[in-house]
Amino acid sequence: MTTSYKGLRLVSIMEGMKGITVLAAGCGVLTLIHKDLHEMAVQLVEVLHLNPARHYPSIFIDTANRITEPQLWLLALSALAYSAVRLAEAYGLWKERPWAEWLGFLSGGIYLPVEVVEIWRKPVWPRIAVFIVNIAVVGYLAVMLKRRKGRPYPR
């Protein structure tokens, strides 16, 4: 592995971590099926010592009251699909596969306009940091794709 491919390993680890995190969250959503979400939301508001009559806690409780089991299943399945894509990308980048570089470049690039709009609406440091990291990853993958142009891919 050359020095230039060490960056692929770093991006691979980041994508794998995203995939594992979302997979864990999806599993967490599955644990909520057949549970009284309204009661859980009320208990959470109480544990956090929030006033349930206030605006945001009441929105949280009302939303928990309206969530249905099919919505929870859909959320869990969406998390599974997202995780599968991220973990496949992580594997492909680790193995230096061109399809994974394209997948990372396109899936990272598709979020950039949305992130610009979000920063424009409310420029807070976490959004700016995520945007900078995504720009760096997409830029790095673009450089890697350009370098490979016309050359055979490693196996």
In words, what does this structure look like?
The protein has 155 residues and is mainly alpha-helical. It is 79% helix and 0% strand. Helix 5 packs antiparallel against helix 7.
Topology readout:
Elements: H1 3-30, H2 37-47, H3 55-66, H4 69-94, H5 98-109, H6 112-121, H7 125-148
Helix pairs in contact: 1-4, 1-7, 2-3, 4-5, 5-7, 6-7
Top keywords for this entry?
elongated; about 0% strand; about 160 residues; mainly alpha
Kindly report how far apart the N and C termini lie. 12 Å
Mean pLDDT: 91
Largest sheet: none
Q: Which H/E pattern describes the elements?
A: HHHHHHH
Give the strand content. under 5%
Number of strands: 0
Radius of gyration: 20 Å
Given as residue ranges, the uncertain stretches (5+ residues, pLDDT < 50) are none
Q: What does the overall shape look like? A: elongated
Please bin the fraction of helical residues.
over 70%
**Total count of helical runs of at least 4 residues:** 7
Q: Given the helix and strand composition, which structural class is it?
A: mainly alpha
Short description:
The chain is mainly alpha-helical and 155 residues long.
